[in-house]
Amino acid sequence: MTAVYLSAKLYIFAIFSAFAEQVTELAMKISLAVRFCSAFLVLTIDENGSRFSTIQGVNGDIFRNQDTNSWYKDGVKLIQDNLGVKPNTNTAKSAILFLGDGMGFSTITAGRILDGQMKGETGEENVLSWEVFPWSALAKTYLVDLQGTDSASCATAFLNGIKTNSGMLGVDSTVRRKYCASLTDDNKVVSILTLAERAGMSTGIVTTTRATHATPASSYAHAADRNWESDADIKAKALDDGSKCKDIALQLIEYPHGNGIEVVFAGGRRELMHKNQTDPEYPDKTGERLDGRDLIQEWVDKHPNSQYVWNQTGFDQIDVKKVDHVIGLFESSNMKYEIERADDKAGEPSIAEMTEKAIKILQKNPKGYFLGRIDHAHHDGSATKALHDTVAMNKAVAKALEIVNKDETLVTVTADHSHVFTIGGYPKRGNPVLGIQKNLGDELAVDLQNRTYTTLGYGDGPGGLNGSRPDLRNVKTDAKDYLQQATVHLGWESHGSEDVGVFGDGPGAYLFHGVVEQQYVFHVMDHALCLSKSKQKSCDKHVTRGGKPKSSGAYSLSLPSMMYVLLMAALLI
Ligand SMILES: *[C@@H]1O[C@H](CO)[C@@H](O)[C@H](O)[C@H]1NC(C)=O
Ligand SMILES: *[C@@H]1O[C@H](CO)[C@@H](O)[C@H](O)[C@H]1NC(C)=O
Ligand SMILES: *[C@@H]1O[C@H](CO)[C@@H](O)[C@H](O)[C@H]1NC(C)=O
Ligand SMILES: *[C@@H]1O[C@H](CO)[C@@H](O)[C@H](O)[C@H]1NC(C)=O
Ligand SMILES: *[C@@H]1O[C@H](CO)[C@@H](O)[C@H](O)[C@H]1NC(C)=O
Q1: Which ligand minimizes its atom distance to the CA of 445?
Q2: What residues in the chain have per-residue pLDDT under 70?
Q3: For binding Mg(2+), which residues are annotated in this chain's numbering (predicted)?
């Protein structure tokens, strides 16, 4: 009996113990849940970023001043902003491509700092106009035949959607460079600008290079060699009978698609003028053409309501309401670097001015254009010129963003390639980016031989050292013509081969993410505008170009004149 009683007691105790254990466990779980909930509740209450402060009660005093730190608050705010970013999947009515020729990441960073320092700030925290775009990608720039790239072949990629060989434009890699006979209708490729023209849109090219330079030319021409800018060039440079190939200037004037390119603002008059014509700005210079054709006059005669200007006064007098086609050629060859522009005799508009006027003309039924100038300056080994051009590009993008309708315009900012341009060392915050390095203690930074050095430098180029590296204590390194030191001494600084950035905003821009091939830029613009057949399975034509109206009323038929593609190339080689 006792045994039975004891065992029953034990049994009850065991049950009770187990129950108690469960109760305890449950209590712990409830307590934990409450703790989590309270933490969670705290997290959801405060929208400002000070949400973490009350977790102290649960987890201890781990966050102290972190949540009031302005850098921390910036991060919290950006999360909030980014949570609100939604992809714009509408079909774009218009597109603008800004191309910073040679504007690699080091150029963007140094340009951002210079722009900030020109405004009296320390510079590093400055934000360029395209750096607030919500979408971006890295683009790989190699070619079919080169690990690196030249401007013609990479412009062919981002404007035509294919990779090709170095030195050729608007053609695929089956063409043999400099052999006219290898160029046929089968290996020509169609650009985004041509697709836009054929869809009835307006197009424009704005550049500080010659209009016939490789980068803008890749939007309208096909050439077995990028240097075939005039008939004289073909005669001098083709390796076979070049007489059956059209030079690039002639292709610009005889461009056969749509109603022709509406706006060309560029340099390079000499390629369109013949030998007997004297340049209007430089009495000692003439045109280059051997065929005796005055292509500028031919262009004006061909287009109704058209106008030619060659200086600032002519540019300022353009009446955007009256003119439908305009060609502005502001230099015999390339336009001036931004930092030298004020010295021009006849006057030249800035990239921002050209951009604004081009958009206003194109907005009457706009479709596209190009712009820029960074690359030549880097080729000279001069960071000052290149970075001032980056600052000018920043203003042009900002101006465009002010005047376009961002809900219907895809704006893309990218580079064709980088340069062997570096930002090195440990300069203190706010150290002049074009200056000699000073470190935290405000002393000059020196090398192992007690010689000073600049923050900016080149891997190769005209600043190359022939013998030992000179000290820079008494050198004005921010002078316009100063050449930063370079490791390898070359006559001409080279392109860089690392990836370039692609920054996008507006309809279709959400497709820019990840690491992509450079030709993808064409495909995003094509999809966003829904132009080529290859895309039309997955996009709807814009209502102003024959698409079905959306019931949401997202598109307005009253605005057909607003469509355009704006290709802006900050071009340079
Ligand atoms: C949130 O920030 C605003 C602006 O700084 C401030 O006025 C407001 O009091 C803050 N709210 C909380 C809950 O801290
Ligand atoms: C250019 O000048 C030469 C020599 O005066 C002349 O023979 C030729 O016809 C001129 N060409 C044109 C297109 O005016
Ligand atoms: C600008 O071009 C116009 C038209 O050719 C010309 O009349 C004017 O003299 C030029 N101005 C300058 C400063 O060269
Ligand atoms: C480095 O050069 C500076 C300027 O010529 C000189 O004042 C300084 O003493 C040198 N320092 C050393 C460690 O040689
Ligand atoms: C390099 O330096 C040597 C010796 O001082 C000189 O003879 C030569 O001309 C220099 N070369 C260049 C390209 O500057």
Answers
A1: 4
A2: 1-61, 365-377, 550-573
A3: 101, 213, 215
For residue 169, give every residue at least 6 positions away whose Cβ sits within 8 Å of its Cβ, in sequence order, or none.
Answer: 152, 153, 155, 156, 214, 217, 218, 221, 222, 223, 226
Burial class (CB in 10 A: 0-12, 13-18, 19+), 346: middle
CA–CA–CA angle 268, 271, 273 (5° rounding): 105
Distance 124 CA to ligand 1 centre (A): 28
CA–centroid distance, 280 to ligand 3, in Å, is 8
Statement: the pTM of the whole predicted model exceeds 0.85: no
Sign (positive or negative) of CA dihedral 268, 274, 280, 286: positive
Q: Is 346 in the pocket of ligand 3 (CB under 6 A)?
A: yes
**Which of 460, 465, 466, 489 has most ligand 5 atoms within 8 Å of its beta carbon, as the pocket-test mutant?**
466
- Token representation of residue 513: 């993410």
C-alpha span between 455 and 429 (Å, rounded): 12
Residue whose CB lies within 8 A of the most ligand 1 atoms, among 42, 44, 45, 48, for a mutation test = 48
Q: Where are the strands (E) in 298-341, listed by range?
A: 306-309, 325-329
All residues at 6 or more sequence positions from 214 whose CB lies less than 8 Å from its CB, including other chains: 150, 151, 152, 155, 169, 226, 571, 573
Ligand nearest to the CA of 446: 4
The answer to the question of whether 419 is labelled as a binding residue is: no
| Ligand 3 centroid – CA 168 distance (Å) | 36
Q: How many CB atoms lie within 10 A of CB 33?
A: 11
Q: How far apart are CA 120 and CA 493, in angstroms?
A: 31
Amino acid letter, residue 265: F
Q: Whose CA is nearest to atom 7 of ligand 5?
A: 466
Known binding residue 379? Answer is yes
Q: Are 412 and 504 spatial neighbours (Cβ–Cβ below 8 Å)?
A: yes
8-state DSSP, 121: S
Q: In what order do the strands lie in the sheet with 421-423?
A: 421-423, 456-461, 486-489
pLDDT in tens, 169-197: 999 999 999 999 999 999 999 999 999 99
Written as six digits, the tokens of 470 are: 């000179």
Cα 232 to ligand 3 centre (Å): 28
Q: Which residue puts its alpha carbon closest to atom 11 of ligand 1?
A: 48
For the stretch 168-173, contacts whose Cβ atoms lie closer than 8 Å and that sit 24 or more positions apart, written own/partner, are: 168/223, 168/224, 168/225, 168/226, 169/214, 169/217, 169/218, 169/221, 169/222, 169/223, 169/226, 170/217, 170/218, 170/220, 170/221, 170/222, 170/223, 171/222, 171/223, 171/224, 173/144, 173/145
For 109-168, what is each residue's pLDDT tens digit? 999 999 999 999 999 999 999 999 999 999 999 999 999 999 999 999 999 999 999 999
The dihedral sign for the CA sequence 359, 360, 361, 362: positive
